[in-house]
Specification:
This protein is an alpha/beta fold. The chain folds into 2 domains: about 70 residues, Orthogonal Bundle (434 Repressor (Amino-terminal Domain)), CATH 1.10.260; about 150 residues, Endonuclease Chain A (Endonuclease, Chain A, 2-Layer Sandwich), CATH 3.30.870. The chain contains 12 helices and 6 strands. Helix 4 runs antiparallel to helix 5. The longest helix is centred in the middle third of the chain and has 17 residues. It is elongated, with a radius of gyration of 22 Å. The termini are far apart.
């Protein structure tokens, strides 16, 4: 029987698949025999072993139960799922969970820290439609957004500055009910004691110091880092020579943007049209 060779250095999914195949072979089980124990199909086992399908958390937990591997597969599956994220983003997330201050400028869509599950699901469903990701990866991305938001509920709370380009709130996503719920979520965010919400209106025109989305983190030790994305990868910058000018531009953006009160009034007016 011809078996696909697995290179564990190629990707996290290849390492996961090789580990799965190795333990299965040690027990002398066929893919169908393992599938019966896990509660799936032999085809599914084959797809995960060869990296054609990423393992879900539930699937990995079932493997740990069957093999008695004490959470090993579930831990490895996290690395595989993160592989579906843009390069550089998983590293950024490790710093976001520690940041004392988070400053974000969003363009085009509501950012993850503010997204409702339904809004996030609509975005990821379109990525699935375009075959950019699998349905399983879409589910993991939506779950990750909820985890990011939960990680910010800590003591002391991080100070979060959020500037949304006006297009973020006017661009419809999904059904009107999805946007109504999303706008309500933004208003709730603005009421929190550790947040500042502003809208950068279209009327700013050329007086917009930032053209692309960017995030600037202030860490507990007061060091700075910034994060920005291209279409293929994210870049985490730690060199102050490059980060400080971005922070200055962010302050300029806030000065030109609507106040929080005016921003809330704009969202409330828009929300009435979705109800």
């Amino acid at each position: 029987m011809n078996r696909k060779e697995l290179d564990p250095d190629k990707s996290p999914s290849a390492r996961f698949g090789l580990q799965l195949r190795t333990l299965r072979d040690e027990r002398g089980w066929t893919q169908d025999e393992l599938a019966e124990r896990v509660g799936c199909s032999g085809t599914h086992i084959s797809a995960v072993e060869t990296g054609r399908r990423p393992p879900t958390r539930q699937f990995a937990a079932s493997l740990d139960r069957v093999f008695g591997s004490n959470g090993r597969f579930e831990r490895q599956s996290q690395a595989v799922r993160q592989n579906a994220l843009i390069e550089g983003y998983p590293e950024y997330l490790t710093h976001e969970t520690r940041a004392a201050e988070i400053r974000e400028y969003a363009v085009g869509a509501i950012p993850g820290l503010l997204q409702t599950p339904k809004y996030a699901t609509v975005l990821e469903a379109d990525a699935v439609r375009r075959e950019a990701i699998t349905p399983e990866q879409a589910e993991e991305r939506v779950d990750l957004i909820a985890k990011r938001q939960a990680s910010l509920v800590r003591s002391p709370s991080p100070l979060i500055h959020m500037v949304l380009d006006e297009g973020c709130i006017y661009r419809p996503m999904g059904k009107p009910s999805v946007m109504e719920e999303q706008l309500a979520r933004i208003l709730e965010f603005a009421e929190l004691p550790n947040t500042i919400l502003q809208i950068a209106p279209f009327s700013m025109g050329e007086r917009r110091p930032l053209r692309l989305p960017v995030t600037v983190l202030t860490m507990p030790e007061r060091t700075l880092m910034s994060y920005a994305e291209s279409s293929h990868r994210g870049h985490l910058e730690r060199e102050s020579t490059f980060v400080v000018p971005l922070l200055t531009a962010y302050h300029q953006l806030q000065a030109e943007a609507l106040s929080q009160a005016a921003s809330v009034a704009m969202i409330q007016k828009l929300r009435k049209g979705t109800q």
